[in-house]
Amino acid sequence: MRYEEESKKIIELVGGKSNINSLVHCATRLRFSLKNTKKADKESLEKLPYVMSVVNSGGQYQVVIGSKVPDYYAAIQSLADLNEDAPKTEKKLSFNYVFEVISGAFSPLIPAMAGSGMIKAVLTILVEMKLLADTSSTYMVLSAASNAIFYFLPVFLGITLTKKIGGNMYVGGVIGAALLEPSFTGMIGQEKLDFLGINLNVVDYATTIFPIFVAIFIYSFVDKFLRKIIFRDLQLFAVPMFSLMIMVPLTALLFGPFGTVIGDALSQAVMWLIGKSALLSGIVLGGGMPFMVMFGLHWGFSPITLENLTVMGGDPIEGMAVAAVFAQIGIAIGFYLKSKKHSKMKALAGPLALTGLFAGVTEPIVYGLILRYKRLLPIVAISGAIGGAICGVTGVTMNAYVFHNIFSIPVYTPKVGYFIGVGSALIAGAVLTYFFGVKEDEMTDFLPETDQGEDDFQETTVEMSANVESTTETVVYAPLAGTVIPLKEVDDDVFSSEIAGKGVAIIPTDNKVVAPFDGTVVAIFPSKHAIGLKSHGGSELLIHIGINTVNLNGEHFETKVEMGDTITRGQTLLVFDREAIEQAGYAMTSPVILTDAPSMETLNIINDSDSVTPATQLFVVGSSKEDTNQ
User: Fold this and answer.
1) From CA 280, how far away is CA 301, in angstroms rounded?
2) What's the farthest any 2 CA atoms get from each other in the chain?
3) What SS3 string covers 275-320?
4) What is the mean predicted confidence (pLDDT) over 135-160?
5) Which residues, 6+ apart, have CB-to-CB distance to 322 below 8 Å?
6) Phi/psi-derived region of residue 398, left when phi > 0, alpha when psi is between -120 and 50, beta in every other case
7) pLDDT tens readout for residues 311-349
8) With contact defined as beta carbons under 8 Å apart, do 178 and 169 qualify?
9) Residue 514, beta-bridge partner list
10) Which helix (H) or strand (E) holds 163?
11) Rg of the chain on CA atoms, in Å
């Protein structure tokens, strides 16, 4: 209630709801795009006790709030009828962006797909063990639970894709749902159909991927265009109405058939390769599937697999690709065996291996291990190719759509070829990883945490031991490698005036942010350009990468942790593309500031004008200046 009342005053003083074009927020401030800045009352805004400052810069009217900015942002979004369905900031179409969209669309669905796949595996086991009949009502209910996510995939993808690309995500879901609506599906197989005189060929879009991807991509432009030409007060119903009237017929007439043609062509190409050489196709699918996962391409095989299951009763593609999954599990097992007790890698690799074995979800292995240790790239390819070749030669097929895990063993035939293939992939992955997977200079995370970084930090520890005394102090290490400058030199009034907090700024020379102390992640901003942390001692720290980089809307940033995660010093929190950000015209000066009053009062800056690494101490919090100079 408090934030709503205070937000009403902010809306009033920026000129009212009708004066707001859009609103975003960064780590410390509300960033309004106003129709007329002259209507805003800066003096009255700055008198509000919950507003620190007001800055009119870069085409944005910035109201500085501090750490509570997300609460005010949410309240203003609701009160001013500003919603997430507004058009997204346009991103450049590129190879990386395409795969970012694919990955972003499927990522929210992975838990539902994994859970549904596990139900399928359990049902298969129960039927094979004669514990449940596949004609019983119990089976039908559970089968519905396992099939729904796949059957209605166009609906779910319509929502997740639109959220990623732009537009109203529920309208995107309706576009997908229209293809599955009984009146539409009732026309499947009928001849001489038309829409306004145009020939109409209705096909079954259940479980398909390609049509909805094409449709939502076009819809994002249609939504943007309609919002430009339709009067604002009519947009609530007019934009969705015209969007559906345009997109559903276009999808049925053009995009749907076009996507189906692409899917058929890809299916034919893969099946042609399988027909030519089971050995070669096994090598390609087993060795190449992890790389397809990295780029999101593996989802393109889903409609082919579903088609093969329907027409042929079994799918040879997944029968070979299963080897890639067990090769990745082998890599996690290899690292688990390689790492010492009480090490970070032991704690990481074990759960990753179990997740792969029991759920068939290996994306964490790909992104958490394989892409981190480049030696694993050829290892996963070789291991998967060995297993895939064996599965291909022995004719292994997957006979129900499941995630590849130990519970889904009953759906593969022949069993002998399957066990030899996946066993070879797993063993090869584990053995090669154990002996060749990591360089000697990359072994830090494989050692017990009490010994980690001893060589790296010994010099700094000796140097600082005479200066820092306490066991109750919070020592803040540099979260970035680079050059330190005082906050007063930052080209941003909010930071340079220390309104947002006290600390320093770092001009980074590297592309990652690491934890400066042991603590907790308390804030991750949607634009990923800033992260808030809290130490075990209670100090609150904000790390803000670049100036005005909130405008990039997350492009060139990738978070490695989630809200509420417990962190340890030196752990990677966020990575960014420094060169790309600079090329986009943004300064990389990155404030590192304490935002809670008790920490600011007892802050002693150790380093504010020198080069630093994550082994360098920046601040000491909780002791007097005399203590730090003893």
Assistant:
1) 18
2) 92
3) HHCHHHHHHHHHHHHHHHHHCCHHHHHHHHHHHHHHHCCCEHHHHH
4) 87
5) 387, 391, 396, 398, 404, 412, 418, 421, 422
6) beta
7) 788 889 999 999 999 999 999 999 999 998 878 788 878
8) no
9) 572
10) helix 153-165
11) 28
Q: What is the pLDDT of residue 133?
A: 87
Strand partners, 531: 524, 543
Full DSSP string of 328-390: HHHHHHHHHHHSPTTBHHHHHHHHHHHHHHHH---HHHIIIIITTSTTHHHHHHHHHHHHHHH
Band the pLDDT of 58: cuts 50, 70, 90.
low
Q: Which of 26, 411, 552, 561 is catalytic?
A: 26
Question: What residue ranges define each of the domains in the chain, with the CATH number in brackets?
Answer: 4-80 (3.30.1360.60), 95-268 (no CATH), 277-292+306-444 (no CATH), 474-621 (2.70.70.10)
Is the pLDDT reported for residue 601 higher than 70?
yes
- The residue written with tokens 């042929």 in the block is 312
Average pLDDT in the chain: 81
Q: What does the alpha-carbon distance between residue 43 and residue 59 come to, in Å, rounded to a whole number? A: 19
Q: Give me 80's structure tokens.
A: 């001013």
Dist CA 514 CA 535 (whole Å) = 14
Phi, psi (deg, nearest 5) at residue 231: -55, 135
Q: Which residues pair with 619 in a beta bridge?
A: 476, 605
Does residue 371 register a pLDDT over 70? no
Q: How far is CA 51 from the centre of its chain?
A: 32
Instruction: Tell me, yes or no, if 391 is annotated catalytic.
Output: no
Phi then psi for residue 627, to 5 deg, are -60, -40
C-alpha of 240 from chain center: 28
Structure tokens at 579: 């060169």
Pairing mode, if any, of strands 474-477 and 617-621?
antiparallel
Q: Using the Cα atoms of residue 335, residue 338, residue 342 and residue 343 in order, give the sign of their dihedral.
A: negative
Q: What's the rounded Cα separation, in Å, for the pair 141 and 146?
A: 9
**pLDDT of 67:** 67
Question: For residue 108, how many other CB atoms are within 10 A of its CB?
Answer: 13
Contacts for 89 with CB less than 8 Å, ≥ 6 apart: 551, 553
- The residue-averaged pLDDT of 589-611 equals 81
Alpha-carbon gap, residue 219 to 244, rounded angstroms? 9
The answer to whether 159 touches 173, Cβ cutoff 8 Å, is yes
Q: Compute the distance between CA of residue 418 and CA of residue 388 in angstroms, rounded to an integer.
A: 10
| Per-residue burial over 89-100, b = 16 or more CB atoms within 10 Å of its CB, e = otherwise | eeeeeeeeeeeb
3-class SS of residue 599: helix
Q: Which of 235, 116, 97 is nearest to 167 (CA)?
A: 235
- Rounded (to 5) percent helix, strand, coil in the chain: 55, 15, 30
Please tell me the pTM assigned to this model.
0.45
Are 521 and 556 in contact by the 8 Å Cβ rule? The answer is no
Strand order in the sheet with 617-621: 474-477, 617-621, 603-605
Provide CB contacts within 8 A for 138, sequence distance 6+: 132
128 C-beta neighbours (distance < 10 Å), count: 11
What backbone phi and psi angles, to 5 degrees, belong to 543? Answer: -115, 115
